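Weekly modeling sync, notes
Attendees: AB, CL, MP (scribe)

Item 1: holo prediction request
CL wants a bound-state model with 2-acetamido-2-deoxy-beta-D-glucopyranose before deciding which constructs to order. AB pointed out that an apo prediction alone won't tell us much about the pocket. Agreed to run with the ligand included and paste results into these notes for async review.

Input as submitted:
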Amino acid sequence: MHLLSTVFSLFIFVYLSGILNCYDIWNDVPCFKQFTPEECKPENVELLTVDDYDKCGPAALEKNARNYFLGASGRRLTYKDNKDAFSRIKIVPKVLRDVSRNQINSSTLGIEVDFPIGASPVALQRLAHPDGELATVKGLSNFKTIMILSNFASTLIEDVGKAAEGTLLQLWMQVYLYKDRRVTLDIVRRAERSGFKAFVTTVDAPVHAFITCNARAKSFSLNASVVNVDASVVGNGDVSDLSLTFEDITWLKSQTKLPIIVKGILNGNDAKRAILAGASAIMVSNHGGRQMDGTLATIDALPKVVAAVNKLYPRRQVFLDGGVRSGTDVYKALARGARMVFVGRPTIWGLALGGSEGVRKMMTLLRNDFNQTMLIAGASKPSEIKEDTLLPALNKLLGIIDV
Ligand SMILES: *[C@@H]1O[C@H](CO)[C@@H](O)[C@H](O)[C@H]1NC(C)=O
Ligand SMILES: *[C@@H]1O[C@H](CO)[C@@H](O)[C@H](O)[C@H]1NC(C)=O
Ligand SMILES: *[C@@H]1O[C@H](CO)[C@@H](O)[C@H](O)[C@H]1NC(C)=O
C-alpha cells in the first residue's frame, strides 16, 4: 500500500510537471537540456558562451514565456537541425596570413555595421523582460548594427524608433502582408516616420504552425500583447493573406522607397522570383523552426539561394537566421555567401538573464568569438572569408543540389 501510493504520487508528480513544462519531459536535445533556475544561479554557472545563454535563458522565465520562446513546430526537427547543421560543417584554417590588421566590420543596404551580426525579429519581448523591445534597443545601442523589430512587438513602433534615435543602432521593420492591406500600410508609414531603414516581409507563414508544447500547457496565456496591430486583425493565428503571390512583393515595393527584404526563403528558385518581384535582399530563414518542421536547416539552404541570387544579380545580398550560436557559425554562414546573420532566441535569453545588459553581453560574446574565428582561420576582413575554407566543399554540394 505504501509502495503503491509512492508510485502513484510519483506518477502524479511526473504527469503534473509534464503539464507544467513539457520541455522537461521532451528533452530532445541532450546538450541543450533545460537547466533549472538552481543550476543557473550565478554561483553555479558563468555565462561565457552563447550556448550558456541558450541553456540558462529559459530557466530565467516563467513557464508560459519559456514555452512561447522555446516553441517550435511539429517534432522540433528543424529547430534542432538549425544548430546541428552548423556542427556538420568544418572550417579548415589558412595559417600564416598576417591578420594583424584584422577588421570585422561590414556594410549592408547602405548601413555600416561593426560586425555582420544583427537581431532577428522576435515577438512580444516584454514577456522576456518588463522593458521588452526598449531593453533590446538599449543593449544594442552602442553597436553599429541592425535590429529588426517584430510585427508583433509589445512596444510601439514610435517608441522603439525614439529609443534608437541618435544611437549607433539602425532599425528595420518586419511587416506581414495582411488581407487588409491598410493594416500593412499603417505599419509601413509609421515605421518610415520613425526612422526605420528597411522592411523585412516574412513569407513563410500563410498560417502560423501548430506549436504542440504551447497547446499542451492548458493554461497557456501570455502576459504581454501585440501593440502595433489590432489584436482582432491578428486573429486566431491567421496572419496573412492565403492568396499571396510574388506579385504582392511587387505591390509592397511600390508602396515605399525603402528596401524590401524577403524573409523565409529556402530555395534558389523562390529567391530568384523574390528578387525579380522587387526584393532588395533575401533572408534565408525557416522561422526558427516554428513553421515547416522537417525542412532544411538554414545553413544547408543557403548555398543554393546564394548561387541563384548571384547568377541573377551578383551584388544582391543574402542574409541568414536560424541556429547561429557562435562565432564559428557566423563564419560558416559568411563563407557560404551570407552578407550578415541575425540571431533571435539568443537576444531573448540575453533579455531574460540581464535585460539590456544581458543583450549587450550576449552580442559582445558573439562578436568576440567571430573576431577570434576570423583571426585563427586567417581572414583579415569579412570579404576574405571564403568558401574554400569549409568542408564539405560547395562545388560538391551544388553538384547534388539543382540550382
Ligand atoms: C571597415 O572599417 C574601416 C575603418 O573604418 C573602413 O575603412 C572600411 O571601409 C570598413 N569596411 C567595410 C566593409 O565597410
Ligand atoms: C504580468 O505583468 C504584470 C505587469 O507588468 C506583472 O505585475 C505580473 O507580475 C506579470 N505576471 C507574470 C505571471 O509574469
Ligand atoms: C579582434 O581581436 C584582436 C586580437 O585580440 C584585437 O586586437 C581586436 O581589437 C579585436 N577586434 C574587435 C573588433 O574586437
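Recorded for review: The pocket of 2-acetamido-2-deoxy-beta-D-glucopyranose (ligand 1) is lined by residues 103, 105-107, 112 (CB under 6 Å).
Action items: CL to compare against the apo run; MP to circulate these notes.
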